[in-house]
């Protein structure tokens, strides 16, 4: 067995989990859609068939005020049990186990009915919560127990009580959000009374043969969070009160430290689980940025944890565990931690899915059944769109020939993976390469597609996925040798000087600022990464924060410029944009908006802002002003007499959008 510790059963006494893999909680948005629970049942059933040991659902509120949004899901009434039973029956039919997460948003509720221990507004929501009265606290505890009882009636194997990430229970635990002076505030004993009474009430309702997981915030990463001694105190009390498993929670949502984005090193927080494991006898779960069976096996075999939690990796590949068990790790569609289709969607109340797996949460709608008529298909370009189409079309039985003018597949991914913190794009290229082999796609590298191939090689249809080219902008001096585009820099065609101006402050501009500001990526150096973000593994201070942030000494002077007069990075990802903005701040990048580009000469780049002239004495000017569709081949194909389909960047060249490109390729493959 390739991963013996990961795949070893875990005996909880009254029940046994078939392996040490937990599919962590993640809201999909199906919970609120009409007919969404039918789709949710199929979604979870596929993951259960995929071999995962235990599934935890997205957060379900125990009452109305605990909802994340006005229309978010709750389980408070018996009539709500029926739809949950659709999910549990589907999972059990696949020989799986599933727990429902009970989550009360507290002051994170995005509605005017939110409540909290104290009337202190969260920095990430617009509503100031109402402070819970003593009577309301007692009722809320009963609501948790009632929700757990209803979950048991619905057929769940247990519940996970969300006590981390800054939600209501976490708000009671920390003085940051709990300034009460009664028996629910003040001392650590009083502040921990709320979670302990919740667990006690749940256990009394559900009996002993029902899994209770508590998600404990082991590292708050905010001021006035818990000290290590307080974390240990609560963990030991939870164990005595009847919790079966403790799951690791890292960081409040309002913390200004990345915890799950692709720039976070793999397994970067498993050390804190290991530290607590020495204090307890019940199983502990490590979490955050665990996305391969190798890293999961290492965490368990080294004794850092008893289980590992992976949420987004099961969006990316429902067969993760089965593939690991069959020693087919190279066929796993690895989560790259981008957040673009999952969390970014959830935060704007859209259905979650996955950039690298567009079927995620669309299992009843996007399928690749065997083609009734086998076709010979030419695909032009092996970037994300072309790769996606080729693999899915070949999976359906079509004869696919993939033409790529360059010597490697991947398109823009080959540039993206060079950005510090985006090394995970290597995994997507590896996955597609393996799938091309598996489904016998005829890959022709170093081969520029010619229009006459269509009839000479008897193709039935042509799919143009030729990608994008950098947008060029013209002003006096823009043809000088020191004016280059981002692709030239990332390919290594240009050696950039110590003073650089970046024209364009979209995603490409921010990536280039990071690339030029951090010559050596810290993503592959976990300890250095933790220090850079102010995290102290010795846990001397509360929340595990260093006394003062690490001072960065940039090797380059970088200007990030944009024509628009609005905030730089406005169009960046909902859940990761703040990280990119902090990174360029760390590298002391000088930002300017409302810029008019006048000329380039021997003195540098001449600009004006609000009619005030300025000269930037720079060695190079890098164009990051977006891209244009590469459609050169399309006019040549107009007379071929065969259907032509245009997808990916060749179809629409806005910001680089692999999410749209891969989905577009998949949807065309499903219908062709």
Automatic annotation (TrEMBL):
<dbReference type="GO" id="GO:0010181">
    <property type="term" value="F:FMN binding"/>
</dbReference>
<dbReference type="InterPro" id="IPR013785">
    <property type="entry name" value="Aldolase_TIM"/>
</dbReference>
<dbReference type="Pfam" id="PF00724">
    <property type="entry name" value="Oxidored_FMN"/>
</dbReference>
<protein>
    <submittedName>
        <fullName>NADPH-dependent 2,4-dienoyl-CoA reductase</fullName>
    </submittedName>
</protein>
<keyword id="KW-0479">Metal-binding</keyword>
<dbReference type="InterPro" id="IPR023753">
    <property type="entry name" value="FAD/NAD-binding_dom"/>
</dbReference>
<feature type="domain" description="NADH:flavin oxidoreductase/NADH oxidase N-terminal">
    <location>
        <begin position="6"/>
        <end position="331"/>
    </location>
</feature>
<dbReference type="InterPro" id="IPR051793">
    <property type="entry name" value="NADH:flavin_oxidoreductase"/>
</dbReference>
<keyword id="KW-0560">Oxidoreductase</keyword>
<dbReference type="GO" id="GO:0051536">
    <property type="term" value="F:iron-sulfur cluster binding"/>
</dbReference>
<keyword id="KW-0408">Iron</keyword>
<feature type="domain" description="FAD/NAD(P)-binding">
    <location>
        <begin position="376"/>
        <end position="638"/>
    </location>
</feature>
<keyword id="KW-0411">Iron-sulfur</keyword>
<dbReference type="InterPro" id="IPR036188">
    <property type="entry name" value="FAD/NAD-bd_sf"/>
</dbReference>
<dbReference type="GO" id="GO:0008670">
    <property type="term" value="F:2,4-dienoyl-CoA reductase (NADPH) activity"/>
</dbReference>
<dbReference type="InterPro" id="IPR001155">
    <property type="entry name" value="OxRdtase_FMN_N"/>
</dbReference>
<dbReference type="GO" id="GO:0033543">
    <property type="term" value="P:fatty acid beta-oxidation, unsaturated, even number, reductase/isomerase pathway"/>
</dbReference>
<keyword id="KW-0288">FMN</keyword>
<dbReference type="Pfam" id="PF07992">
    <property type="entry name" value="Pyr_redox_2"/>
</dbReference>
<keyword id="KW-0285">Flavoprotein</keyword>
<dbReference type="GO" id="GO:0046872">
    <property type="term" value="F:metal ion binding"/>
</dbReference>
<comment type="similarity">
    <text>In the N-terminal section; belongs to the NADH:flavin oxidoreductase/NADH oxidase family.</text>
</comment>
């Amino acid at each position: 067995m390739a991963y013996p510790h990961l795949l070893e059963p875990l005996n909880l006494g009254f029940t046994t989990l078939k392996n040490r893999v937990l599919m962590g909680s993640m809201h999909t948005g199906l919970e609120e859609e009409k007919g969404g629970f039918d789709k949710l049942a199929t979604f979870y059933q596929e993951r259960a068939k995929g071999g995962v040991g235990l599934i935890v659902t997205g957060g379900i509120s125990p009452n109305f005020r605990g909802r994340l949004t006005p229309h978010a899901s709750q389980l408070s009434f018996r009539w709500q049990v029926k739809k949950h039973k659709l999910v549990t029956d589907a999972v059990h039919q696949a020989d799986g186990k599933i727990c429902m997460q009970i989550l009360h948003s507290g002051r994170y509720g995005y509605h005017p009915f939110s409540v909290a221990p104290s009337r202190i507004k969260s920095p990430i929501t617009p509503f100031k919560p109402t402070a819970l009265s003593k009577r309301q606290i007692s009722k809320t505890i009963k609501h948790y127990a009632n929700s757990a009882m209803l979950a048991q009636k619905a057929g769940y194997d247990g519940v996970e009580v969300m006590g981390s990430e800054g939600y209501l229970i976490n708000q009671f635990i920390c003085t940051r959000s709990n300034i009460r002076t009664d028996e629910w505030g003040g001392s650590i004993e009083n502040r921990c009374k709320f979670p302990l009474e919740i667990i006690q009430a749940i256990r009394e309702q559900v009996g002993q043969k029902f899994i209770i997981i508590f998600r404990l915030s082991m590292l708050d990463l905010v001021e006035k969070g818990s000290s290590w001694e307080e974390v240990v105190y609560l963990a030991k009390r939870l164990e005595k009160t009847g919790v079966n498993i403790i799951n690791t929670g890292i960081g409040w949502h309002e913390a200004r430290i990345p915890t799950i984005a692709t720039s976070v090193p793999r397994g970067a927080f498993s050390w804190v689980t290991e530290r607590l494991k020495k204090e307890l006898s019940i199983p502990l779960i490590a979490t955050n940025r665990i996305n391969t069976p190798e890293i999961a096996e290492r965490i368990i075999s080294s004794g850092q944890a008893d289980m590992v939690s992976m949420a987004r990796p099961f969006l990316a590949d429902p067969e993760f565990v089965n593939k690991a068990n069959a020693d087919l790790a190279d066929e796993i569609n690895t989560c790259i931690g981008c957040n673009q289709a999952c969390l970014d969607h959830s935060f704007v109340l859209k259905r979650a899915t996955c950039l690298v797996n567009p079927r995620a949460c669309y299992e009843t709608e996007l399928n690749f059944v065997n083609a009734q008529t086998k076709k010979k298909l030419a695909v032009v370009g092996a970037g994300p769109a072309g790769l996606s189409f080729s693999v899915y079309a070949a999976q359906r039985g079509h004869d696919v020939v993939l033409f790529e003018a360059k010597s490697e597949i991947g398109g823009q991914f080959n540039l993206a993976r060079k950005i510090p913190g985006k090394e995970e794009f290597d995994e997507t290229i590896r996955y597609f390469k393996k799938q091309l082999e598996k489904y016998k796609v005829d890959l022709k590298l170093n081969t520029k597609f010619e229009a006459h191939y269509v009839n000479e090689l008897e193709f039935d249809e042509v799919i143009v996925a030729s990608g994008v080219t950098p947008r060029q902008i013209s002003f006096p001096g823009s043809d000088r040798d020191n004016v280059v585009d981002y692709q030239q820099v990332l390919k290594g065609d240009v050696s950039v000087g110590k003073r650089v101006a970046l024209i364009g402050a979209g995603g490409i501009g921010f990536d280039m600022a990071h690339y030029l500001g951090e010559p050596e990526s810290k993503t592959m150096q976990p300890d250095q990464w933790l220090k850079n973000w102010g995290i102290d593994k010795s846990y001397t201070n509360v929340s595990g924060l260093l006394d003062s942030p690490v001072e960065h000494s940039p090797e380059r002077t970088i200007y990030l410029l944009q024509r628009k007069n609005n905030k730089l990075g406005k169009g960046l990802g909902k859940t990761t944009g703040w990280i990119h903005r902090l990174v360029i701040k760390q590298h002391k990048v000088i930002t300017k908006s409302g810029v008019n580009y006048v000329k380039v000469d021997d003195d540098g780049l001449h600009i004006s802002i609000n009619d005030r002239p300025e000269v930037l004495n720079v060695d190079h000017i890098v164009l990051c002003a977006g891209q244009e569709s590469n459609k050169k081949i399309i006019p040549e194909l107009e007379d071929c007499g065969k259907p032509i389909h245009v997808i990916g960047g060749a179809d629409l060249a806005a910001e680089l959008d692999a999410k749209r490109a891969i989905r577009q390729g998949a949807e065309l493959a499903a219908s062709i």
